[in-house]
Every structure is written in C-alpha cells, then in structure tokens.
Design brief:
By secondary structure, this protein is α/β, with parallel strands linked by helices. The chain is 41% helix and 16% strand. The two termini are 16 Å apart.
C-alpha cells in the first residue's frame, strides 16, 4: 500500500500519526509511506528520525488577533494545495491520511480534488477546526471519543479510539534502574507536556519540598524549555528530574500514579495501561478541550481531576496519597479504565483504511 500521512504542530497529532504508520508497516512491510508536515514545527525533527520520508510545506494557522497575517496564511494555503497536488500525482498514493493540525488542510483538500481516498482522525473530544473543515472532503473519519461522533457526518464516522493506545500496550517496559529508581518502591510520574509549563512547574517545585518524607519515589519531567531553571533547585533524594523521556510509555508501565495534562494521546496511553492518574487539564487550549477530554474519565470514576486554579502543594500531595495509599481505590480505578479501553485502536484504523482502499 502507498500512503501519504499528514499531521503536525504538536505531539498530540504527530504521535498518533506515527502509530498509524507503524501499524501499516507491521501489517504490510512493503508499504511505501510519505509524511507531509509543516516546515517549522515538531514533526520536521521527529519524523525523519524515524526513517520516514518527509516533505515540508510552509503553512500557518489562521490568526484571529492579527488579521493581516491571514493574507500570508491564505497565500500559503493556495500554494500548499498546488504543491500537494503535484506530490500526490508523483507519489500516486492509495490513500491519504490526515491526523490533525492545519497542515492537513491542503493535503486532504488536494487528495479529494484528485479523487484519492482520504481518511482523517480526530484525537480530542472536541473536534479541531482543521478536521471540521475537512469533514466533507474525507471519505472516512475516525474519532477517539464516542462523544465526538456527533461532530461529524454519522454515515462515514467510526469510533476507533486513539492509535497511541495500542503502541503503549506493545512497548517494552523500562528497567527502573535506568532512571536511578528503586524497583521495590512505588513511583509517581509527573509530566506537564513535551514542552512543559513554567507556571505548573513552579507549583510542582514547591510541592517537591514536602515529598522527602514519602515512601514512594517521584520522577518529574519538566519539559526541555524549563529544565535548566528547575534543576537549579534542591530536591529530596526520592525525586528525580528529567527534561524529557523518549517513549514515555515504557516508564508509564512501571508507574503507580501519573500526574499529567489531559491531552488525547496521553489519556489513550493512561487508559491502555490502566494507569491511575491525576489530570490537570490545560486551560489555555482551544475550546477548553483538555477539560472535556478528562470528563470522559471523570464520568467513569477512573481519574482524579485537579483543575489548575485549584492546583497547589496541598491539593497535589493529597490527591497522590488518596490513590497510592489506598489499594482499593487504585484497584477500582484500574477496573473502571478497563471499560474505556478500545483494545486495538491502530488495528481498527488499519483495517478500515484497507477496506477503504479496496473499495469495500
């Protein structure tokens, strides 16, 4: 199968795209993949390192505050559609897949104009603008949350779950000693996104001072931009600080409680690994979608929700202890997470793409 995949801007789009690519390669090793991404975002560094052919396009999102900048955005969009048409004609894909981000707009639009089959995937419980604008152009739409089905045409929308869940389940767990951890002690993993959050880091740094007398260990992933400032502080011996951890799921498999934002890919991994969590949704994302993502777990009594406005040393430690010192609560959370697990999201996506390509 020949496939063009496009996704960009954040890890929440890129890693699900990579999970789909990996599943296609697993099922059809001779498949040829081309990834189309933006020229100046994360994917330009992440994707080529995976050995995947990468083509970049200059593309920007529309700016509500600086209207004049949208003239350049519109110009890039029209140029991008033209470039994508040329690329599609040369590559001759069986299907074109969009996994979120404004870069997918010219890619899917061009594929639709050329009569190539298209599939788009929505990770969040609140549909992104790019996917909403492409709904009529796509032949098939996959969603990570059942509640998202209503955002798209029902006759071509399917509930797939997030493909990152299957990747997390299959990854080999790490050796705790790799991170200087005691294999016999419980572990709390605190991570606030790939770039971190300076405001949240301040709260967490303060909380660390009160964690020295705890029997469990803590790994605090600061984000690359915040690490140099955070590491200047003095922390208890049971606290380990890292700027970034590659393939976080391998450490998540050794974790007892995770404190994190509520991005769709992270939630899919939490669900797949049946990992008790304390979710702190970012209030700075479009349509407050992280809070709404978290509600699916809250409604199923499978997480503790701690809003940023309520986040402090006392509330964080109280929430951690409420799970880690309560085996019955931990057991119930894991049981509830089991109900939310689609089990084989990447496989579901692959099988439906295959049917689309075969005209079934």
């Amino acid at each position: 199968m020949r496939v063009i995949v496009s996704a960009g801007g954040t890890g929440g789009h890129i890693y699900p795209a990579l999970a789909i690519i990996n599943k296609i390669k697993e099922e059809e090793p001779n498949s040829e993949i081309l990834y189309i991404g933006t020229h100046n975002r994360m994917e330009k560094d992440i994707v080529p390192k995976q050995g995947i052919p990468f083509k970049s396009i200059e593309m920007y999102g529309f700016n509500r505050k600086k209207i004049l900048k949208n003239f350049k955005t519109l110009s890039c969009l029209l140029k991008g559609i033209s470039e994508c048409k040329k690329t599609i004609k040369e590559f001759k894909p069986d299907v074109v897949i969009g996994v979120g981000g404004y870069i997918t707009v010219p890619v899917i639009y061009a594929a639709n104009k050329l009569g190539v089959k298209t599939f788009i995937h929505e990770q969040n419980s609140v549909a992104g603008k790019a996917n909403l604008s492409l709904a009529k152009k796509a032949d098939l739409i996959g969603v990570s949350f059942e509640s998202s089905i209503n955002d798209f045409p029902k006759d071509k929308t399917i509930f797939t779950g997030n493909p990152c869940s299957e990747s997390a389940r299959s990854i080999k767990p790490c050796d705790k000693k790799e991170f200087g951890l005691d294999p016999k002690k419980k572990l709390v993993l605190i991570v606030m996104g790939s770039l971190g959050s300076s405001k949240m880091n301040e709260h967490i740094i303060n909380a660390m001072k009160d964690l020295g007398n705890k029997s469990y260990e803590v790994v605090f992933v600061t984000g690359k931009d915040s690490y140099d400032d955070v590491i200047k502080n003095k922390f208890p011996k049971n606290v380990k600080i890292f700027p970034y951890i590659e393939n976080m799921a391998r450490l998540m498999k050794k974790t007892d409680v995770i404190v994190s934002r509520a991005g769709a890919s992270t939630l899919s991994e939490i669900i797949a690994l049946k990992l008790p969590s304390i979710l702190v949704p970012s209030p700075y994302v479009p349509n407050n979608h992280q809070y709404k993502n978290a509600q699916d777990l809250v409604n199923n009594e499978s997480t503790i929700l701690l809003e940023e406005k309520d986040f402090n040393t006392h509330s964080l430690i109280k929430s951690i202890d409420a799970i880690i010192n309560n085996p019955e609560k931990e057991k119930q959370i894991k049981k509830n997470l089991e109900k939310l697990d689609t089990g084989n999201s990447a496989t579901i996506i692959y099988e439906n793409i295959k049917k689309l390509v075969d005209g079934k």
